[in-house]
Amino acid sequence: MYLKSAALILAASASYYILVFRADSALVTMVSAIVLALALVGIGFNVQHDGNHGGFSRFAWVNRASGFTLDLIGASSYFWKFKHNLNHHTYTNIPHEDADIEVGWFARMCDDHQWYWFHRYQQFYLWFLYSFVHLRYIYSDYRAFITQRMGGKLIKRPTGANLVGLIAGKAIYLSFAFVVPMTRHSWSTVVLGFLAISMMMGIIFSIVFQLAHSVDTVEHPSEKDGPLREEWVVHQIRTTSNFGTNSRFLSVALGGLNFQREHHLFPRISHVHYPELSKVVKEVCDEHQVQYAESVKLWDALRSHYRFLKHMGTKPAPSLASR
Predict the structure, then answer these.
(1) What's the chain's average pLDDT?
(2) Is 319 among the domain residues?
(3) In the predicted model, is pLDDT for residue 96 greater than 90?
(4) What is the C-alpha separation between 68 and 111, in angstroms, rounded?
(5) Total domain count for the chain?
C-alpha cells in the first residue's frame, strides 16, 4: 500500500512538472494531463480515503498527513469527514440524511425526491454531469464554511489548527492549479487545462461511488416506510453493493472501494485486506440470512446504475408526482 501511494504521488508530481514546464506539443500535453488526472484520482482513492478514515497507519499523524492529500487535490479533508465519514457512513441511502444522494433538483436519486419531467432522461444526461463532481466538491467547501451547513445539516466551522489546515490546503491547491501555471502559460490555457483535468477526475470519482449505492440491487429506504430502520450493520449491507470483485486491477486502482460493503462495515481497516475480509462477511451474511448485493463484473454494475437512474426518472404515481 505504501509503495503504491508513493508511486501515485511521484506520478502526479512528474506529470504536473512536465505539463507545466516541459510540454512542447499537443501529444505531450494531452498525455501528461491524463496521467495527472489519473494519479490525482488514485491518490483520492488510495491515500486520502484511508487516511481520513484512520486506516492508513496506526499512527494518527500519518493518517492526518495522508488525509491532507485531499486538500492538495482540491477538497477539504475537514469538511470531507463531516460529509463522508459521519453523514454518509451513518445514514447510507436514507433520504434527507445521506448527503451523497441529495444532489439537487437536476437528479432524482430516491422515491422521496421531487419528480420533474426531465428526470425521465437522467439515465442519459447524468453521465455528463458527473464530470462536474470535482468542481462541486471545491465549491461546497466554501459554501459550508460560510453557511455552516452541509447536506442540510449544521456543522462546526473549523477553528485553530483545523482552520490553519483548511486555509493552507486551499492556498497550496490554488497556487498549483492556477498561480504557478500562469507564470508559463496564458490564463485561458490554464483554465482550459484545469477544467479538462477536473472533469476527468469528476467522472471517475462519481461513477465509482455511484456503483456502490445508486444501483437497483440494493435497498433505498423511503420516509413513507416509517421511522423504523434496520440494525446498523444490516442496513449497511443491504444499502451497499460490491462491484468488479473479479478484477485485481480494480481492487488495486480503486483502493479497495469496489469492496464497498467491507469498507462500510470496517472503515478503519486498511483497504488491502478487503478482498479476504469479504469472504468472512459473506459467510456471516449467509449464516444469518442477510441478503447482500454484488456485481462481480464492472459492466454489470454500470448497467445496474443505468437501470436505477431510469427507474428513478420514471414518473411516479399521481399522488407522488410534483408535475
Answers:
(1) 94
(2) no
(3) no
(4) 36
(5) 1
